[in-house]
Amino acid sequence: MKKILLTILAICAISRVDAQVISTGNHWFDGSKLYTSQVLDNGEIYSSGMSQEGEAYCFKLRKLDYAPGEYMLIPANVQDDAPFRAQYGWRVQYIRQSGMNFLAVRNRQDVIVWTLVLTPSSNLEEELASERFAESHPVDEMLTDYLMNTTYLARFDKYELLEMYEKLEAMKSHTIITKTNMNLIASEIEVVESERELLLGDVATEAQPLDEYFALVSAYFNMREAMEYISFMGYPTPAVYGTWGEYDRTFVVLPGKEDTVLEIWDVELNGEFVVIPTGEKPIIKANPGQPLCFSYMPPEGMPGLIVVCRKSNGKIDTWVPVFSGMDGSLMTDDQFVDGTPVG
Q: What is the pLDDT of residues 205-229, one digit of tens each?
């Protein structure tokens, strides 16, 4: 960890960021909560927000006059504990660089421990939909293309986080995204498991909330309306089909169970034309209780990936999603984990 910290400090030292002042009406999303800021008469910034579960949160910042674009985290209410796994008195930077606009909470060692991205949206559900979309993509892409947050990182164990950090460390050049992601991953490795946020484990597995989620995804990416229900581990699970850009894609959210680890693997056909996983590790993994969101666009009629369900009793089930080739929908055959399509 000492080597990691020294690397982070070196990156911070050579980084130049542009400052911007927080304004009333600014919205900030940290992966699970959406905040709205208000500039008070005394110049302090009061930000309040709501989580998916309807819980209210707030924090306050005091501008540091000697450091443009920097603030100090202070109590919004005397009795409140400090948010963001932070301590009162820690610095919060407003970073604007290379098209990125976000708040970075830094600890005493100057390592970023939390991020809140500036967003024009005041709709929490829209932000959660974009978060799920990010979680459906391969991790290697997200390391360089996506400003991570603690909600996203909560999906990974400490060994996976260390592997992600080492991949970033090996890069010859860094962007504001990779610098920030290195900070976040380094700080996440040091957090005890009991304190790590597992937002995805709280996502409902009933049909109605998933309906609403997919409606938002469809609208966000201008996808044509097309949805069916499949049966997955006993839950009615909707799948949405549509066009994103020039390509047809399928979006699926598989509800999690407390006794099951869900994994997505690349696949190939062996000599007997049986679909088998390839690679040393899954593309995406969801721990017990966490749902797994993924999107893909395999060739017509061909498997592009395989879903592996590892249960705590040692049993392993698999499901190979395959396009029908007609309207982009999934083939609904006996490869489903526990039955035929429903609804």
A: 333 344 555 555 555 545 544 555 5
The CA distance from 327 to 323, in Å, is 8
Q: Residue 217 domain-assigned?
A: yes
103 Cβ partners below 8 Å, 6+ apart?
28, 92, 93, 94, 95, 115, 116, 118
What tokens does 29 get? 């999303």
Do 118 and 259 have their domain in common?
Answer: no
What whole-number distance in Å separates Cα of residue 129 and Cα of residue 135?
10
| Residue 331, pLDDT above cutoff 50 | no
337 pLDDT higher than 60: no
Q: Which residue has the tokens 């949206």?
A: 121
Cβ within 8 Å of residue 119, ≥6 positions away: 27, 28, 29, 34, 127
Do 154 and 121 share a structural domain?
yes
What span, in angstroms and rounded, lies between the C-alpha atoms of 205 and 213?
A: 11
Q: How many independent structural domains does the chain possess?
A: 2
326, part of any domain: no
Strand partners, 342: 229
Structural domain containing residue 236: 203-319
What CATH code is carried by the domain that includes residue 74?
Answer: 2.40.128.50
Regarding whether 189 and 216 lie in a shared domain, the answer is no
236 shares a domain with 309: yes
112 by Cβ neighbours in 10 Å (0-12 / 13-18 / 19+) ranks as buried
pLDDT tops 60 at residue 128: yes
162 and 223, same domain (yes or no): no
Q: Please, which pLDDT band fits residue 26 given cuts at 50, 70 and 90? A: very high
Q: Rounded CA gap, 311 and 309, in Å? A: 6
22, 138: one domain: yes
